[in-house]
Amino acid sequence: MTDTVKVDKKKLPNTGCDPEWEFMTSSIFFRADTPLGHCGTRSMVALSVKASGEVNFYEQYLEKNIWNSHTVQYHIENDL
Q1: Per-residue pLDDT of the chain (80 residues; tens, 9 = 90+)
Q2: Residue 12 to residues 9, 34, 56, 59: CA-CA distances in angstroms?
Q3: Three-state SS across 12-63?
């Protein structure tokens, strides 16, 4: 989730945005400084559910320039 590898410029989708902006924002995780301030990835979430009913929720989020993380684990009861 923190992959910063950019796409090959020849493979950009040409959405009508500035090609340099397209390139800068082409990775999964990015940060860009703009005239209006910082722009980029602010949160990441992973959710897993096992057949046994075990559920894991993990998140990382940016708050006041500090990365925080939070994990929740629980079990889903199957009454069938």
Answers
A1: 889 999 999 998 888 888 888 998 999 999 988 899 889 999 999 999 999 999 999 999 999 989 999 999 999 987 76
A2: 5, 21, 35, 29
A3: CCCCCCCHHHHHHCCCCCCEEEECCEEEECCEEEEEEECCCCEEEEEEEEEE
Strand partners, 31: 40
Separation between Cα atoms, residue 40 and residue 21, nearest integer Å: 12
CB-based contact 58:46 (threshold 8 Å): yes
pTM of the entire structure? 0.67
